[in-house]
Amino acid sequence: MRQRIGDYALLLMASVLTTVPGLGGYSLWDVDEGVNAQAAREMAEADTWIVPTFNYALRTAKPVLLYWLQRLSYAALGVSEWSARLPSAVCGWLAVLLTYELGRRLWDRTAGLWGGVILASAAQFIVLARAATPDASLLLCTVLTFYAFWRGQENGGRRWWHTTAVACGLAVLTKGPIGIGLPAMVIISYWLWQKQIHRLWDKRLLTAAGLFLLVAGPWYALVASETRGEWVKAFITRENFERFARPMEGHHGPVFYYLLVLPVMFAPWSVWLLPVLVDGLQQARRGHGVVCPSPVGSSTGAQPPCPTDDNPSVYRFILCWIAAWLVVFSAAATKLPNYIFPLYPALALLTGRWLARWQAGGLTVAPWVVRTALALFALIGLVTCVGLIVAHRWYAGLAFWSWSGLLLVIGAATAYRAWRQGKRVVMTYRLAVAAVAFGAVTAAGIPLALDRHRAPKLLVQHSGIADPYRDLRVGSYRWFAPSLVFYSGREVTVVPDEAAARQFLDVPTPAYLFLPASVWEVLLQQGDLPAHQCLARHYDLLARTEIVVLGNAAVGPELSGLKPPPTVPSLQPQLSPADEFPYLR
Q: Closest Cα to residue 388, out of 377, 375, 376, 397?
């Protein structure tokens, strides 16, 4: 028990380092973070746990579990970026601990520990465990599903049905039908491979189905009732069938899209990806044991426990887990990197077991494989250094964080030295420390540097819109960022055309209109624009242009808190804003 507590402490430390620093220090990223954070706040304002809305209209893109978690976080900590992202961070920590426990059951403590550390320091995990999106909660539910399955079915057991059904129910509340469809695909394909498909015919199937419906069914039934079926119809057809059948929102790619994404988002541990997968396939096909060599430097002749070629069923289970997500989402027309996120614990465990066997001498790795992996590890660091220095030309502030890439270079160099000395354990530990340190620094620093080049929060702050006691209208024309609703704290009217934009400003109550600076200039040249003032302007990274906020005649300088600029500044889209936001007026 004391050993497990120590392992938990180590894994939590790694997870916290890669997820917590700077978690609330930068504004919400659009589109997803802005929508989810605001949807949870609107549910809290409406005092409902059933119907999700965004911009005070029905939101059908995602089920409700994330909003529930965010609402609880808001109640405890107040509404902020920190509290919007905290549920994802906590789900990430729990997923790392469950990955460790699953690794212990599949193999042993060392494999589980390595699996947890690798997951906590993988690029995709660091990004999504810090994001106000349902990906981290789906990851937790997925690992919980497979942990419950494996624990219950070991040694021919049948106790897995009910706990797995509950976990699948939570997953369906998080992301929809994939929460049960893909785990079912993994389990069925695993038992087909094992030639044990008969294990599905069990009387517990009925009671498990009842438990699943008891967990996921009530909310779906209530939201269908309260929206007269509109939510369920839109969610099933648009967000599931249509996304699978055709690319949506420009998110498309070739069938091998995820084969390109996986090495990038599993970095830096993807340097071992090819030998790990090859070995996993070999183990799944054979699974016979090997004899470990005597320990390096041992004079007693004692033979310690040795990780050998394992039971093939374990590898088959892990490979079915990985393959299910890759096959389904490679076939889908809409493609996004986060869609395959739930396979990362399986890949982390497979890599962790491979490293554990190599450390203990139960696996022979060619020297050129090690040299290549360490070179790639260092190359990731060098690319980070150069990339941030080059990107500083357009986005000031990034060059400061270029030193973070040196953490991987130093880690690779010190690991190489340990390997040459025959210290494989020391080598892998140094790689782990470098990966966690690199993830912690880049995740905390780069978003902060980029945030100064994003417009919604800054424009709202500098135009005085966020005062909840003022009677005013907010609109947007030819540009819309969901986080604008979150930061303004009120509905944002999407203006459809130029005539509506002029009409929006020509009202007796204070009105604020957000639009690209280039569009504003065109309207000025055309004339007939109602009396107004430019309250603020700022370059937006995602829109790749300057955004201005205009106030109509009813917005006086004493209300906006700003004096109108004496002249309209010229537009210079080829320039990036400097560190002190020179485009703000």
A: 397
Cα–Cα distances in angstroms (integers) from residue 149 to residues 99, 145, 162, 357, 374, in the given order: 13, 6, 9, 25, 36
Q: Is 251 left (phi over 0), alpha (psi -120 to 50) or beta?
A: beta
Distance between CA atoms of 133 and 140, rounded to whole angstroms?
13
Beta strands 511-516 and 545-552: pairing type? antiparallel
Domain boundary assignment for the chain: 2-236, 456-560
Place of tokens 């869609």: 339
Q: Measuring CA to CA, how many Å separate 125 from each of 34, 400, 427, 445? A: 20, 24, 23, 16
pLDDT tens digits, one per residue of 287-331: 444 334 433 333 333 434 444 457 899 999 999 999 999 999 999
**In this predicted model, what pLDDT tens digit does every residue of 85-139 receive, in sequence order?**
999 999 999 999 999 999 999 999 999 999 999 999 999 999 999 999 999 999 9
> Could you give the CA distance from residue 510 to residue 115 in angstroms, rounded to a whole number?
56
Distance CA 477, CA 453 (A): 20
User: Which residue do the tokens 């485009």 mark?
Assistant: 583
The residue written with tokens 């310690």 in the block is 304
